[in-house]
Amino acid sequence: SFYVYFTVGFRSCDGNKKIHFGSSEPEDFRVGEDGVVYAERSFQLSAEPTEFVVSAQDKETQQEWQMRVKLTPEPAFTGSSEKDQRKIEEIIFPWQQYKHSSPLKRQKRDWVIPPINLPENSKGPFPQELVRIRSDRDKSLSLRYSVTGPGADQPPTGIFIINPISGQLSVTKPLDREQIASFHLRAHAVDVNGNQVENPIDIVINVIDMNDNRPEFLHQVWNGTVPEGSKPGTYVMTVTAIDADDPNAQNGMLRYRILSQAPSSPSPNMFTINNETGDIITVAAGLDREKVQQYTLIIQATDMEGNPTYGLSNTATAVIAVTDVNDNPPEFTAMTFYGEVPENRMDVIVANLTVTDKDQPHTPAWNALYRMTGGDPTGRFTILTDPNSNDGLVTVVKPIDFETNRMFVLTVAAENQVPLAKGIQHPPQSTATVSITVIDVNESPYFVPNPKLVRQEEGLMAGSMLTTFTAQDPDRYMQQTSLRYSKLSDPANWLKIDPVNGQITTTAVLDRESIYVQNNMYNATFLASDNGIPPMSGTGTLQIYLLDINDNAPQVHPKEATTCETLQPNAINITAVDPDIDPNAGPFAFELPDTPASIKRNWTIVRISGDHAQLSLRIRFLEAGIYDVPIVITDSGNPHASSTSLLKVKVCQCDLNGDCTDVDRIVGAGLGTGAIIAILLCIIILLILVLMFVVWMKRRDKERQAKQLLIDPEDDVRDNILKYDEEGGGEEDQ
């Protein structure tokens, strides 16, 4: 590397010029783009100052400025008690010379100090003289110099001091660029009276970086992933280190490299790293998670652009996990699996299908899906996957009949939740056969048909044969005796069944109008049992549809009515009711009997519809009272059925609106038979209670008299009379 002497700076009025620095002695001195002056070779400076010119050229306008530089060697430090006087370079700046002008011309009368470059971590001696600040007025005036700003009179104070007489600026201790990279001071020049002689100027002291910091990784352990089977050039991860030194100088320019890889299979150089960015990429093929699941790389970062001699280094660990891809199909552990299931069972696991898969467990590339490719056209089986073991669970979802199917041979295939990687095919081991045997069990007998419907006219007499209701046993391959029949439900107790042949006969007359018949239908349930192990039974329902016959005569409704004693208004509406149904019910015929003669003399009846008629007075006036009017009603059945019904009519006096006014008198005078019977019963019960009370009282008196005869004479109450100061009634005689 080159020895750094100092830094030149250029300040333009607009501050936007792009400047290129040059040297009049390029073989000896080189000026960088940042203004740092380097020695291009090693040479000894003579006692006389070495001079050369530094030029600054505008890249756009080609305008050029020049500055003359004088270099004088510093005397060596002798260690004497008094500090040797050293000649400090004085820089008079700027000298402006235009490209086509000849003599140098002083542009401004002010004093100027260029930026000062000071290496960090200097070993002294201190204070170390830096530069002499001088005003061109010091020849005519006695001046005093001072500096202000951070590092001088502001924290951190005392780093820089200035000789007020000579203007010599010095540093008092070593500097650390990583703490403060530059100091901005302001220099002042005043006369002995304190009057300002020159305008204050800014002094910039740049701390030149030294390589005193090692690179530091942001993490000591870096974690990354790469899919197995990745092609060379696949990006894996990026590691990053930082250096506290100047990143724009070689001291802070880092380079990365891989020191080691573990394991070293299938190649010791599976990865490479971009030495500038820290990007790690694959450099070789053959990543296989099933063989190597993780690689550990030791990464080194070195500053000085990776110079192994002068650069400082540090290391970190990169752990690269090889992630799984579906490059291994599931394979059955056997070519044929076996299972068995009892007939008529559902939701039963009949076989476990086991597979192996080299991919990472419990990932979509490992999880197996099973499907049937043949042997189950009716969909009686399904295959579920056990999430823990990855086994296929062959399950029955529809009942199986042994008498129909004794065995199933299924063809199944296994695949993963995600497709196989490109170029990978399913091997024959991904297909297997499942042989399932159906076990015969004792099944329940069943009636045919069930329910069985029988149409029968009501009125069938007891002991009549109704029908035969038999069952069948589905177990054709079991040796069993014949079935036995019994009655399970017969609400009206009308039927019985032969236990051997299933013949059903009646035990009572069938009546359609029974309360056990709903909508002409009577239901009875029978049981058929076999003698298998264990015994099984089945039920069957016999439905008897009862056809109506004309076995019920119509009746009048309601049984009581009220009318006025005069001719108008006196119509009574009545209805005929018949438990039978059409055609053995309405329309009905209504008429009055010939006897007694007073019925037709006092009343008349007229049919107004098939089920309704009107009863009214024939005479102008009928005395108020209770009258029983017989009415003959005939239905339309074949043959006809008729009955005479009594209608109790209450005749009363009515007001102008036709409402009865003497209902209480009529009701009191005309109590019905039911009311009279109820009154008589109440009277009889009351008399019985009175009689029982009298008998109880007499028995109580007899018991009291018997006790009196058994009393000892000495205990006679007449000899034990007690006197009380009380007045009251006399003795109570009984």
Let me know the number of strands: 50
Largest sheet, strands/sense/barrel: 4 strands, mixed
SSE class: mainly beta
Strand content: 35-45%
Radius of gyration from the CA trace? 65 Å
Uncertain runs with pLDDT below 50, 5 residues or more?
A: 76-86, 91-111, 665-670, 716-734
Distance between the termini: 156 Å
Strand line-up in the sheet with most strands: 9-15-14-11
User: Helix share of residues?
Assistant: under 10%
Detail the topology: elements first, then pairings:
Elements: E1 4-7, E2 19-23, E3 29-31, E4 36-39, E5 50-58, E6 64-71, E7 95-96, E8 105-106, E9 116-119, E10 128-132, E11 143-148, E12 160-162, E13 168-171, E14 182-191, E15 201-208, E16 216-217, E17 221-227, E18 235-238, E19 241-242, E20 255-262, E21 271-273, E22 279-282, E23 294-302, E24 313-323, E25 331-332, E26 336-342, E27 348-353, E28 355-356, E29 368-374, E30 381-385, E31 392-396, E32 407-416, E33 431-439, E34 446-447, E35 452-457, E36 465-468, E37 471-472, E38 484-489, E39 495-497, E40 503-506, E41 521-529, E42 537-547, E43 555-557, E44 560-564, E45 572-577, E46 589-591, H1 597-602, E47 603-607, E48 612-617, E49 625-634, E50 642-652, H2 663-669, H3 673-709
Parallel strand pairs: 9-15, 17-24, 26-33, 35-42, 44-50
Antiparallel strand pairs: 1-4, 2-5, 3-4, 5-6, 7-8, 10-13, 11-14, 12-13, 14-15, 16-19, 18-22, 20-23, 21-22, 23-24, 25-28, 27-31, 29-32, 30-31, 32-33, 34-37, 36-40, 38-41, 39-40, 41-42, 43-45, 45-48, 46-49, 47-48, 49-50
